[in-house]
Input
Amino acid sequence: MHPVLFRIGSFTIFGYHLGPITVYTYGVLVATGVIVGLILARWQARKFGLDPDRIWNVGIYMVLIALLGSKLWLVLGDLPYYLHNPREILSFSTLQSGGDIYGGVMFGLAFLLWYVYREKLGYWAVADIFAAPLALGHSIGRLGCFSAGCCWGKPTTMPWGITFTNPLAAQLVGTPLNVKLQPTELFEAGAEFINFLLLIWLGRRRNFTGELAAAWMVLYGTERFIIEFYRNDPGRGMMFHNSFSFMQVVSLILIFIGGWMFLKHRIRRVSTVATETAQN
Output
């Protein structure tokens, strides 16, 4: 666990005093995951017959829009505070923060849908390209969570339990210290890396457009649904008398959509075979 990678002392640029600047391990690993994912997506585009430069561009734009959306959602989520402290909206701490993930996902996805429609790229073809890169980038990003001490698990006595001891993690994200916890961050990082390998393997024998996206939905939905039972960090939107989290509901939706796509392809394939047999 190493929340802070390094610090840069105070300095002045064009008369503006900045610093000290803290570079967090979480941010560096998340950025690394994004860059690695974009490079892989560009390679996947060429493999699937789409323009790599257009895929790279849409990936860059999507990341920027997602970052902007996460910051906007953060401000809207605590609007009274920011209305009373408008300077905080553009403060260095706000710009440096990760923002709200839900806002980032919604804004990024909305932009992706609009861009793909405008460029007539094909929704499921683009989704197939980003499936494996998303899994790999997410895997690297979860290592950032582990470094920061966020997204922690429930107390455990199992031998694989981990104990956080860095006071800075408790100060920044409320990490419980000196308590053996389920390493849910590592569970998800490992599961997503396995998903990445499976999606790369599946991509070599893709049977229909959208298959990799459907596979990611089923794989990630199943993985996240199970891991949520072992997480214990607050703010996850617990529902149904704290029995399920919001992400578990989302996971079930992902599994349903992915499973429906596989079933639809299976039915279409059986129907095609039956028609060809009847014609012969």
